[in-house]
Amino acid sequence: MHKARTRSVRNRATLVGSSFAALIVIAAALAATASGHAAGKTISVAIVANPQMQDIASLTPSLFTKQTGINVKYTILDEGKLRAITTRDVGSGGKAFDVVMIGMYETPQFGAAGLLQDLTPQAKADKSYNYNDLIPAVRGGLSANGKLYASPFYAESSFLMYRKDVMAKNHVTVPARPTWAQVAAIARKVNTPSMAGICLRGKPGWGDLGASFTTVLNTFGGTWWSSTPDGKPAQAQIDQPQFKTALDFYSNLVQGAGEKDAANSSFNECLAQYQAGKVAMWYDATVAAGLLEAKDSPVKGKNGYALAPVVKTKASGWLWSWALAIPKSSPDPTDAWKYIAWATGPGYIKEAGTKTKGGWAAIPPGTRLSTYRIPQYKQAAAAFAPKTLAAMEAAPIDNPGTTKRPGLPGVQYVGIPQFQDVGNRCTQLFSSVIAGSMKDTDAIGQCQRIASDAIK
Amino acid sequence: MTAADATLTRSGTRKGSVRDPFSSPWRRRLPLLPALLFTIVVTQLPFLVSIYYSFTNLKDRTQSLIPEPTKFVGFDNYRAIFNDPFFRQAMWTSVKMTVFAVGLSLFFGTLFAVLLDRRFHGQGLVRTLLITPFLLMPVVAALIWKQQMFSSLFGILNRVLQFLGLNSVAFISDHPLASIVTVLVWQWTPFMMLIMLAGLQSQPSDILEAAAVDGATPFGIFRQLTLPHLRRYLELGALLGSIYIVQAFDAIDVMTGGGPGSTNVPYFVYQESLGGGFRYGSASAYAIVVVIFAIIIATFALRVLSGLLKDEDRV
């Protein structure tokens, strides 16, 4: 009895022991295949949720993975979330992404701080990538100290888009180089309950409301900070009269003749409203024009384009690029470059022209000189391509306003790291002003404090 | 945690011999020690590190063009907190959000519990439906409300307003706090309802029958008998509800992404650190201050709770 029990206990122990060992072996095998997979064959990429990026995500398996055997795992996020996540990951040396999509604001800053891989040697060595084909202003904006830190996926300026048919019906002509006073008058004139006069971004975020508003602020003669002679931020300028004039102009225009629920609207929301015929004009990124003239767009062929409206400066359009970069901490930089060379190379632009549902007009624009020599693109984008190029050349990147700016060059942002947080928090206040739930003077007072504290 | 630790050591020295760590009480505790150690490592060490960070100007590496060394700044971060109007605003928002959300969900929870307490056809189905909001993930609940209910483009509420011939309202932009409180109330009402239902079902029915025989109106019975009986369940619901709702984050992040009127204290600390500010030093200081407040409130709340439990024993 006693003996038998001991044996059974021992047997049970052996059983437990061996099954435990088996489990470990299985787990180890699984882990090995998983990591083996990750090392050679899968890269993770974080991109922004705009239409052109969604196109490339859907074309990747057939055009990239099939040729190279590299799987691409996409994380598609809206602008604000993408910024928070990439900044956190790049800054902390995290290994979550092999490739991140960042903008012209972050690239030179992260590059200078040594957080990104220098892409220049690979870009120059890779014949099919054609480094010299990149539009110089864009390449310059994505470089720091002469080194290219991110490869542009698309680039843009900002301009005014309007419905020609609506303007004709109201007997209005939009000048090719309008002023903000003219645009405001037209917006109020064509504004009806079913169709707003103009769509302007009102959603909090320095890259959302902050971008549109800062171009208006620049041309009204205002700015966020004054600069010391050596380019450091000197004093917050939110409490200056020009700032209040610009903010009041912007919020009055949106309240009087702007889109519905402006405080939640940014690029994608305005795009949807414009395509649905709910707004007559739209001041936003030039890249939008390609989507308005796309094969599947309900407003195709109905649109006119004018340069970004001005007040005190000669030009006010922004300069921006969404670009792909490799963090220093990327686990797989070689495959990451292969992906970037494909996604931002001249080859993909041609593929996108025939393989996306938007067609030639909706390809990623503004990055390469060769794009503007493709016959099909010249034809499909005749309405806006020359104006896009003109707007990008006119973008006053080095001297956006009437006073010297601190930090790195930038139009719709200030090229210092503090701007991201200050811009985000202040645009929350300004968005409340636009929604009518906060007084302009309160918002300006609080924002002045945020901006002063940030540069202490 | 530290209190439990102390009890453990004290009883250990009393009962077992100090020299022999494998005497009987210690042998019993030994399997628990890894868990204790693990808890200390993952909860208390980070807290100590946070305290250290709160005395420095630590920032994310992306936040300076030229790498700056992290400096020891003494109490600067703490001094800044008490001069920061935005932090005060966030505290005030936290208070309003918690009071309104807890109060309203208690009110509706009690109402639904009273309705559910009587027998009717399809009771099980109704009860399940009423509990559902509590089972949804908070992010999903917030998204549903944001897109399907409040949106001025395709929201149901605005469709109804239009149908009635009224102007559409941008609920979230015009009334951020009220919108968030609505979602919180929707989510937490079932929780309160369950607590109240337990309270109602523990009420002896003979008293109610006696009152009815004496000619009391149903409302009179509810006000004079049921409500006093429910008092301690209301207190428990308010306490647990406050503990959870004061930490609300998901609804704010999804619906407004912060802003005046909707940034509460947890969201403020997030904005200061991982959410865009990347000032880990001062964010740590904010977190420490919040922990101190939380300990004060929790001590008070726990005293109320243990008072409630003692009450229970007496009955």
Which overall shape of chain B is indicated by the principal axes computed on the Cα atoms? globular
Portion of residues in beta strands of chain A equals 5-15%
Q: What's the multimeric state?
A: heterodimer
Distance between the ends of chain A: 83 Å
**Spatial order of strands in the largest sheet of chain A:** 2-1-3-13-6
Low-pLDDT sequence parts of chain B:
1-16
CATH class of the largest domain in chain A: Alpha Beta
CATH architecture of the domain at 84-272 in chain B: Orthogonal Bundle
**Biggest sheet details of chain A:** 5 strands, mixed
Give a summary of the structure in a few sentences:
The complex is a heterodimer of chains A (456) and B (315). With 456 residues, chain A is of the alpha/beta class. Helix content of chain A is 48%, strand content 14%.
Structural write-up:
Chain A has 456 residues and is of the alpha/beta class. In chain A, strands 2-1-3-13-6 form a five-stranded mixed β-sheet. Chain A has a four-stranded mixed β-sheet with strand order 8-11-7-12, sandwiched between helices. Chain A starts with a helix and ends with a helix. Chain A has two domains: 39-155 and 320-380, D-Maltodextrin-Binding Protein, domain 2 (3-Layer(aba) Sandwich), CATH 3.40.190.10; 158-317 and 386-454, D-Maltodextrin-Binding Protein, domain 2 (3-Layer(aba) Sandwich), CATH 3.40.190. Chain A has helices spanning 2-41, 51-68, 79-91, 106-112, 120-125, 136-141, 164-169, 180-190, 209-219, 241-257, 267-275, 287-292, 333-343, 346-355, 375-380, 385-394, 418-435, 440-454, and strands spanning 42-48, 71-77, 99-103, 143-144, 147-148, 151-156, 158-163, 196-199, 225-227, 233-236, 279-285, 303-307, 320-325. The longest helix of chain A has 40 residues, at 2-41. The relative contact order of chain A is 0.16. In chain A, α2 (51-68) links the parallel β1 and β2 (71-77). In chain A, α17 packs antiparallel against α18 (440-454). Chain B contains 15 helices and no strands. By secondary structure, chain B is mostly helical. Chain B has a domain at 84-272: MetI-like (MetI-like fold, Orthogonal Bundle). The longest helix of chain B is centred in the C-terminal third of the chain and has 35 residues, at 280-314. In chain B, α5 (85-116) packs parallel to α10 (176-201). The radius of gyration of chain B is 25 Å and the shape is globular. Mean pLDDT of chain B is 85; it is low at 1-16. Chains A and B meet through α3, α4, α17 and α18 of A and α9 of B.
